[in-house]
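Open question from group meeting: does this chain pack into something compact, or does most of it stay loose? Before anyone orders reagents, we agreed to write out a predicted structure and look at it together. Recording both the input and the output here so the notebook holds the full record.
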Amino acid sequence: MKDIVLDFLANNASQIWTQIWTLLSVVAGGIVTYITTSRIESKKSKRQFQQKKLEEILIPYCTCLEKVKDTAFIPYGKDESFEVFFKSLREPLVYLQAAKRAYLSQNERKKLISYKESVDALEKALNDDANHCHISCVGYLEAKLRKFPDGEGTMNIYFSFAKGADKAIKCSLLAGKPLLMSHYLTSVQFCYNDDPENFQSKTIDISKDVRSIWDGLSYSVYDLEDVGDKFNVEELEQGCELLDFMKENLTDEADNWAKYSQELKSPSIFFNLLDNLNLMIDEITKTIDTITA
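C-alpha coordinates returned:
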Protein backbone atom coordinates (compact mmCIF):
# COMPACT_ATOMS: atom_id res chain seq x y z
CA MET A 1 0.00 0.00 0.00
CA LYS A 2 2.83 2.32 0.88
CA ASP A 3 4.50 1.62 -2.42
CA ILE A 4 1.32 2.41 -4.33
CA VAL A 5 0.98 5.80 -2.58
CA LEU A 6 4.62 6.66 -3.26
CA ASP A 7 4.29 5.68 -6.93
CA PHE A 8 1.14 7.85 -7.22
CA LEU A 9 2.86 10.86 -5.69
CA ALA A 10 5.92 10.37 -7.89
CA ASN A 11 3.88 10.12 -11.07
CA ASN A 12 1.48 13.04 -10.21
CA ALA A 13 3.77 15.40 -8.27
CA SER A 14 3.56 18.12 -10.89
CA GLN A 15 -0.23 18.16 -10.95
CA ILE A 16 -0.45 18.10 -7.14
CA TRP A 17 1.90 21.07 -6.74
CA THR A 18 -0.01 22.97 -9.41
CA GLN A 19 -3.27 22.48 -7.54
CA ILE A 20 -1.68 23.46 -4.23
CA TRP A 21 -0.26 26.68 -5.71
CA THR A 22 -3.61 27.42 -7.33
CA LEU A 23 -5.35 26.99 -4.00
CA LEU A 24 -2.78 29.15 -2.21
CA SER A 25 -3.11 31.83 -4.89
CA VAL A 26 -6.88 31.89 -4.49
CA VAL A 27 -6.58 32.14 -0.71
CA ALA A 28 -3.89 34.84 -0.90
CA GLY A 29 -5.89 36.77 -3.49
CA GLY A 30 -8.95 36.62 -1.28
CA ILE A 31 -6.99 37.88 1.68
CA VAL A 32 -5.46 40.72 -0.33
CA THR A 33 -8.87 41.64 -1.77
CA TYR A 34 -10.40 41.58 1.73
CA ILE A 35 -7.66 43.77 3.17
CA THR A 36 -7.80 46.20 0.24
CA THR A 37 -11.60 46.41 0.37
CA SER A 38 -11.53 46.88 4.14
CA ARG A 39 -9.02 49.68 3.84
CA ILE A 40 -11.06 51.38 1.12
CA GLU A 41 -14.23 51.07 3.18
CA SER A 42 -12.40 52.30 6.28
CA LYS A 43 -11.09 55.36 4.44
CA LYS A 44 -14.52 55.94 2.94
CA SER A 45 -16.16 55.72 6.37
CA LYS A 46 -13.52 58.03 7.84
CA ARG A 47 -14.06 60.55 5.05
CA GLN A 48 -17.82 60.39 5.56
CA PHE A 49 -17.38 60.85 9.31
CA GLN A 50 -15.01 63.79 8.80
CA GLN A 51 -17.40 65.34 6.28
CA LYS A 52 -20.32 64.97 8.68
CA LYS A 53 -18.19 66.36 11.51
CA LEU A 54 -17.18 69.26 9.30
CA GLU A 55 -20.65 70.15 8.01
CA GLU A 56 -22.72 69.50 11.14
CA ILE A 57 -20.37 70.59 13.92
CA LEU A 58 -17.03 72.23 13.14
CA ILE A 59 -18.11 74.83 10.56
CA PRO A 60 -21.27 75.85 12.50
CA TYR A 61 -19.22 75.97 15.71
CA CYS A 62 -16.57 78.18 14.10
CA THR A 63 -19.30 80.41 12.64
CA CYS A 64 -20.92 80.68 16.06
CA LEU A 65 -17.64 81.73 17.69
CA GLU A 66 -16.99 84.31 14.99
CA LYS A 67 -20.53 85.68 15.39
CA VAL A 68 -19.99 86.12 19.12
CA LYS A 69 -16.69 87.87 18.46
CA ASP A 70 -18.31 90.22 15.93
CA THR A 71 -21.50 90.97 17.87
CA ALA A 72 -20.58 90.80 21.57
CA PHE A 73 -20.15 94.54 21.86
CA ILE A 74 -20.66 96.44 25.09
CA PRO A 75 -24.40 97.26 25.00
CA TYR A 76 -24.28 101.05 24.92
CA GLY A 77 -27.45 101.38 22.81
CA LYS A 78 -30.75 102.39 24.32
CA ASP A 79 -32.45 99.18 23.16
CA GLU A 80 -29.54 96.93 24.12
CA SER A 81 -29.22 95.13 27.43
CA PHE A 82 -26.73 93.06 29.39
CA GLU A 83 -29.24 90.22 29.43
CA VAL A 84 -28.95 89.99 25.63
CA PHE A 85 -25.18 90.57 25.88
CA PHE A 86 -24.64 87.53 28.11
CA LYS A 87 -27.11 85.45 26.11
CA SER A 88 -24.98 86.15 23.05
CA LEU A 89 -21.78 85.21 24.88
CA ARG A 90 -23.35 81.88 25.90
CA GLU A 91 -24.45 80.81 22.41
CA PRO A 92 -21.35 78.60 21.81
CA LEU A 93 -22.10 76.60 24.97
CA VAL A 94 -24.66 74.53 23.06
CA TYR A 95 -21.63 72.64 21.73
CA LEU A 96 -21.01 71.25 25.20
CA GLN A 97 -24.04 69.00 24.74
CA ALA A 98 -23.08 65.33 24.43
CA ALA A 99 -24.27 64.98 20.82
CA LYS A 100 -22.05 67.88 19.75
CA ARG A 101 -19.02 67.81 22.05
CA ALA A 102 -18.21 64.26 20.87
CA TYR A 103 -17.00 65.78 17.61
CA LEU A 104 -14.66 68.25 19.32
CA SER A 105 -11.11 67.39 20.29
CA GLN A 106 -10.20 67.10 23.95
CA ASN A 107 -8.36 70.41 23.83
CA GLU A 108 -11.29 72.14 22.11
CA ARG A 109 -13.66 70.83 24.80
CA LYS A 110 -11.36 72.06 27.56
CA LYS A 111 -11.21 75.52 26.02
CA LEU A 112 -14.99 75.67 25.64
CA ILE A 113 -15.48 74.62 29.28
CA SER A 114 -12.97 77.28 30.34
CA TYR A 115 -14.85 79.81 28.19
CA LYS A 116 -18.11 78.92 29.96
CA GLU A 117 -16.48 79.43 33.35
CA SER A 118 -15.15 82.82 32.20
CA VAL A 119 -18.60 83.98 31.06
CA ASP A 120 -20.14 82.93 34.39
CA ALA A 121 -17.32 84.62 36.29
CA LEU A 122 -17.71 87.80 34.22
CA GLU A 123 -21.43 88.04 34.89
CA LYS A 124 -20.97 87.64 38.65
CA ALA A 125 -17.96 89.96 38.85
CA LEU A 126 -19.70 92.63 36.76
CA ASN A 127 -22.75 92.61 39.02
CA ASP A 128 -20.56 92.75 42.13
CA ASP A 129 -18.33 95.50 40.70
CA ALA A 130 -21.30 97.58 39.54
CA ASN A 131 -22.86 97.34 43.00
CA HIS A 132 -19.55 98.36 44.58
CA CYS A 133 -19.22 101.33 42.24
CA HIS A 134 -22.80 102.42 42.87
CA ILE A 135 -22.26 102.39 46.64
CA SER A 136 -18.96 104.26 46.26
CA CYS A 137 -20.53 106.87 43.97
CA VAL A 138 -23.38 107.46 46.42
CA GLY A 139 -20.89 107.86 49.25
CA TYR A 140 -18.89 110.36 47.22
CA LEU A 141 -21.97 112.38 46.24
CA GLU A 142 -23.33 112.36 49.78
CA ALA A 143 -20.06 113.69 51.20
CA LYS A 144 -19.99 116.46 48.61
CA LEU A 145 -23.65 117.50 48.91
CA ARG A 146 -23.48 117.79 52.69
CA LYS A 147 -21.63 121.04 51.94
CA PHE A 148 -24.56 122.29 49.87
CA PRO A 149 -26.70 124.77 51.89
CA ASP A 150 -29.68 122.39 52.01
CA GLY A 151 -27.37 119.51 52.90
CA GLU A 152 -25.98 121.01 56.09
CA GLY A 153 -27.35 119.30 59.18
CA THR A 154 -29.19 116.56 57.29
CA MET A 155 -29.58 113.10 58.79
CA ASN A 156 -29.45 111.41 55.40
CA ILE A 157 -29.28 112.28 51.74
CA TYR A 158 -31.13 110.05 49.26
CA PHE A 159 -30.47 109.95 45.53
CA SER A 160 -32.67 108.99 42.61
CA PHE A 161 -30.92 108.00 39.40
CA ALA A 162 -32.11 107.70 35.83
CA LYS A 163 -33.21 104.28 34.61
CA GLY A 164 -30.02 103.60 32.65
CA ALA A 165 -27.58 104.36 35.48
CA ASP A 166 -26.81 100.76 36.46
CA LYS A 167 -26.30 99.80 32.83
CA ALA A 168 -24.02 102.82 32.34
CA ILE A 169 -21.87 101.70 35.28
CA LYS A 170 -21.38 98.25 33.72
CA CYS A 171 -20.60 99.69 30.29
CA SER A 172 -18.01 102.04 31.78
CA LEU A 173 -16.38 99.21 33.72
CA LEU A 174 -15.97 96.99 30.65
CA ALA A 175 -14.78 99.91 28.51
CA GLY A 176 -12.31 101.05 31.16
CA LYS A 177 -13.68 104.59 31.11
CA PRO A 178 -14.74 106.81 34.03
CA LEU A 179 -18.43 107.48 34.63
CA LEU A 180 -19.87 110.68 36.06
CA MET A 181 -22.81 109.37 38.07
CA SER A 182 -23.88 112.93 38.87
CA HIS A 183 -25.06 113.17 35.26
CA TYR A 184 -27.60 110.42 35.97
CA LEU A 185 -29.09 112.05 39.07
CA THR A 186 -32.78 112.93 38.70
CA SER A 187 -33.48 114.16 42.22
CA VAL A 188 -31.86 114.59 45.62
CA GLN A 189 -33.76 114.28 48.87
CA PHE A 190 -32.31 115.94 51.97
CA CYS A 191 -33.76 114.24 55.03
CA TYR A 192 -33.69 116.28 58.25
CA ASN A 193 -35.78 113.95 60.40
CA ASP A 194 -36.57 110.36 59.47
CA ASP A 195 -39.01 109.83 62.35
CA PRO A 196 -42.25 108.69 60.66
CA GLU A 197 -44.30 110.83 63.04
CA ASN A 198 -42.27 113.95 62.34
CA PHE A 199 -40.69 113.24 58.95
CA GLN A 200 -38.98 116.28 57.45
CA SER A 201 -37.23 116.42 54.11
CA LYS A 202 -36.69 118.49 51.02
CA THR A 203 -36.48 117.05 47.52
CA ILE A 204 -34.83 118.95 44.69
CA ASP A 205 -35.64 117.94 41.14
CA ILE A 206 -32.71 117.88 38.70
CA SER A 207 -34.28 115.65 36.08
CA LYS A 208 -33.81 115.95 32.33
CA ASP A 209 -36.25 118.89 31.94
CA VAL A 210 -34.61 120.88 34.72
CA ARG A 211 -31.13 120.21 33.32
CA SER A 212 -32.29 121.37 29.88
CA ILE A 213 -33.53 124.67 31.34
CA TRP A 214 -30.33 125.01 33.37
CA ASP A 215 -28.28 124.63 30.18
CA GLY A 216 -30.39 127.29 28.51
CA LEU A 217 -29.90 129.66 31.43
CA SER A 218 -26.16 128.99 31.45
CA TYR A 219 -25.92 130.07 27.83
CA SER A 220 -28.39 132.93 28.30
CA VAL A 221 -30.84 131.39 25.85
CA TYR A 222 -33.70 132.44 28.13
CA ASP A 223 -34.56 133.53 31.70
CA LEU A 224 -36.52 131.75 34.40
CA GLU A 225 -39.49 133.99 33.68
CA ASP A 226 -39.64 132.57 30.15
CA VAL A 227 -40.52 129.12 31.49
CA GLY A 228 -42.51 130.19 34.52
CA ASP A 229 -45.81 129.28 32.88
CA LYS A 230 -44.72 125.63 32.48
CA PHE A 231 -42.65 125.05 35.61
CA ASN A 232 -42.60 126.15 39.22
CA VAL A 233 -40.01 128.94 39.27
CA GLU A 234 -39.01 128.33 42.89
CA GLU A 235 -38.40 124.63 42.23
CA LEU A 236 -36.45 125.47 39.09
CA GLU A 237 -34.27 127.90 41.03
CA GLN A 238 -33.51 125.22 43.62
CA GLY A 239 -32.65 122.71 40.89
CA CYS A 240 -30.41 125.21 39.09
CA GLU A 241 -28.65 126.14 42.34
CA LEU A 242 -27.93 122.50 43.03
CA LEU A 243 -26.65 121.92 39.49
CA ASP A 244 -24.41 124.98 39.80
CA PHE A 245 -23.03 123.65 43.08
CA MET A 246 -22.39 120.22 41.57
CA LYS A 247 -20.61 121.73 38.56
CA GLU A 248 -18.26 123.66 40.83
CA ASN A 249 -17.66 121.00 43.49
CA LEU A 250 -17.63 117.67 41.65
CA THR A 251 -14.59 118.40 39.50
CA ASP A 252 -12.74 115.39 40.93
CA GLU A 253 -15.58 112.92 40.25
CA ALA A 254 -13.71 111.17 37.40
CA ASP A 255 -10.58 110.83 39.56
CA ASN A 256 -12.70 109.38 42.35
CA TRP A 257 -14.14 106.80 39.94
CA ALA A 258 -10.65 105.78 38.83
CA LYS A 259 -9.59 105.35 42.44
CA TYR A 260 -12.25 102.87 43.46
CA SER A 261 -12.54 101.05 40.11
CA GLN A 262 -8.87 100.21 39.50
CA GLU A 263 -8.88 97.00 41.53
CA LEU A 264 -12.15 95.57 40.20
CA LYS A 265 -12.16 92.15 38.53
CA SER A 266 -14.67 92.41 35.69
CA PRO A 267 -12.56 94.44 33.20
CA SER A 268 -9.65 91.97 33.18
CA ILE A 269 -12.02 88.97 32.98
CA PHE A 270 -13.75 90.55 29.99
CA PHE A 271 -10.54 91.20 28.04
CA ASN A 272 -9.15 87.74 28.86
CA LEU A 273 -12.42 86.23 27.66
CA LEU A 274 -12.09 88.02 24.31
CA ASP A 275 -8.48 86.82 23.98
CA ASN A 276 -9.54 83.23 24.67
CA LEU A 277 -12.34 83.55 22.13
CA ASN A 278 -9.79 84.48 19.46
CA LEU A 279 -7.64 81.48 20.42
CA MET A 280 -10.66 79.17 20.16
CA ILE A 281 -11.45 80.51 16.68
CA ASP A 282 -7.82 80.01 15.58
CA GLU A 283 -7.76 76.42 16.81
CA ILE A 284 -11.06 75.35 15.24
CA THR A 285 -10.04 77.05 11.98
CA LYS A 286 -6.82 75.01 11.89
CA THR A 287 -8.83 71.83 12.50
CA ILE A 288 -11.12 72.67 9.60
CA ASP A 289 -8.17 73.45 7.33
CA THR A 290 -6.54 70.12 8.20
CA ILE A 291 -9.69 68.18 7.27
CA THR A 292 -10.27 70.04 4.01
CA ALA A 293 -6.60 70.03 2.93
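Observations to bring back to the group:
The CA atoms of residues 225 and 250 lie 28 Å apart.
Residues 2-71 form the longest helix (70 residues).
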